[in-house]
Amino acid sequence: MHSLISIAGVLGIQLPAATERRITELVTDSRKIYFSEQSLFFALKGQAQHGDRFIAEAYQKGIRAFVIDTEIDETLYPDAVFLFYPNSFEALQKIAAWHRASFHLPVIGITGSNGKTIVKELIFQLLYQEYNIVRSPRSYNSQLGVPLSVWNINEVNTLGVFEAGISKNGEMQELEKMIAPGLGIFTFIGDAHAEGFGSIEEKTREKLQLFKQAKTLFYCADEKVLHKEIEHFVQKENSELVLFSWSRKPGAVLEIFSTIRKGSTTEIQCNYKAEDFIFTIPFTDEASVHNCITCVCVLLYFGFDEMSISKKMEALRPVEMRLELKKAKNNCSLINDSYNSDINSVSIALQFLSQQNQHTSKSVVLSDIFQSAHAPLDLYRDIATMISNLHLKYFIGIGLQLQQHANLFRNMEHVFFFADTEDFIAHIDQFHFQDETILLKGARVFEFEKISRLLELQTHQTVLEINLDALRHNLLMYRQQLAPDVKMMLMVKAFSYGSGSYEVAGLLQHAGVDYLAVAYADEGITLRQNGIKLPIMVLNVDENAFENVLANQLEPELYSLNIFRSFTRFLKDRKIKNYKVHIKLDTGMHRLGFIPETLEQLCTELQDSETVHIASVFSHLAASDNPNEDPYTEEQFAAFNAMANEVELAVGYTFLKHISNTSGISRFPNLQLDMVRLGIGLYGVDSNEMMQKKLQVVTTLRSTIAQIKNVKKGESVGYGRKFKLESDAEIAVVRIGYADGFRRVFGNGVGKLWVNGQLCPIVGNVCMDMTMIDVTGLQAAEEDEVIVFGKQLPVQQLADWSSTIPYEVFTDISQRVQRVYYQE
Known about the structure:
By secondary structure, this protein is α/β, with parallel strands linked by helices. Helices cover 32% and strands 23% of the residues. The protein has 27 helices and 39 strands.
């Protein structure tokens, strides 16, 4: 795409002609290297670690061109070229802005608090037949995501659509330089990511900086704050900006008369340039209506007539923003990704597949890729290169284009090609999918959902969804609280607080955490069997587990003289020395741990023992979440330091010390020591109000309505006739009960469920498999979705209703409820 010499010139660096090479890929993650010879690696400074730590790994994988901002020993990397720039992150953005400026295609820039990715994908659906569109992969809209997105612009593209997301003042200026949109869309303005701004007006003004050079802006004038700030922006900063507004009131460019729900569709009546017209969309929720009207404004701007717009809007399909991981038949895991079909999304899906270590075997089912900026030969050659690095059990290509380029995959074993999905399904029995992870990556027209239905386990409709992006976000939020070099131990006991075991542990391993902790050896064994190689501390160990602890290289917590003596005898009998253990001290929690009275004896026996090596000494805070108990927390910390120092003096070497837990991380920076232990905060719950605002909801428990019936006043609902109706009511039966972990205490009006934007009270006792709710006047329908807890209904609310804590709500969810893991 560009020469290395020309890229160096952008940074003001001159290179000798002998260093020339072609650069097509910008890489910031050493785990995501596919085309090393054509890649430029940026050693970026992250929240937790600096990218220069991964130069050696990138070099080993074949990369020979680097951008760095710290001095390194270049003699360690013969034949590599290093471009030194004071800030490698700024270098990346500067190169992206230069690349963008070399193309003169129309570009749409999208910002807003919500809906950016949805609108981007709807525009793609609406315009891909007329334009060769380059767009942000998934929700790549950050300071890092935007330059990587813009770099994808190619000579064959005729339209660009890029998102821009910010979280604080000063960020949009750099994004504007890279996107340089001529057309702009402002979706919504709301509370999302508002913590970095003093007011909603301030956030709106910062987002509008994306349109400093834009010529036209599409937005909804019914949002009063947004409309006012846009008018001010035109007056003060971009007087040439033409406003293409829509509104339900007179005066906008596109006036909306009515939005009428008709079954699963919405009919929208509007007026444009004194002409009335009607179009229908296959959605009914308010957000989708809003997004679709914005897209109609774009179509009108591009000159489409009423009939064309009507056909395009009717043909829209829901935007699948998620890459899902779920259990499949024959002990398989299934990754289903129908988000979009381009090489960027294929790369993301393959990277997700490579992270899954629960099975040694992996297979890929891939369809033809449409709307690529590459010639088919180059496109499928690149795909073959990416696939070959995965050492697959099966590669199955579906589509005529893949069939035509089958020779590019000839160096791989077990490669099969089919003309279409039906052809593959007719031959699916010849493939023995067993104990493996299967990636389905297909364009919508190939209807890979038919394959998914054949492979996945059939379960009832109550599902616990785990947002892996939110997990990563929450991990980052806590990492930002830590001093440099403080390590993190993540608690994945109790099935990762109900969210899964190896699935969550695999993400944490990929994210580079230092330690995992489980309650029992069995949990650690499961992690080891599913490819988890991180150090694992086991909190509760007894003699029956010693063999398994040793066989799986687990590190036990030793909390009493009895367990210490038993384990050291076990090791001595096997002539094992310096096995890693963790010493638990009781500083006031009065659960497990050595108390001061037994510490002296422990120190004496440690001095005489060669069998163990202390990896860490730790304790647990009893009330770090309670400000009224802060003096006690400080007392615990002082006691811990004294006891840990005594152990250190006895053994004569240093070890990790840790006492801080989730609430301690955010409330007591002085307690971080060498390592902190993060538990429920990873899953989006923190007692610290300021920290809670920074976290994202990780788990959503969903179900559906099985039946709705009209029940007369005076009739009873549920077992025991404990609930009798005071008036006629519509009663919905929801597919969840106490066998799923939804507790009986929620019955008879104590708890509520979220249906169609409203809380609905539970009537009668919760049954084993079903729960009844009052949906009177809601216009609810059978098979409608029901939220048990999630973003709309926080888990803390359920905990309050049942006089417990979120931990118990999470861990109550039974194993019969399918876990679905997804990322955007």
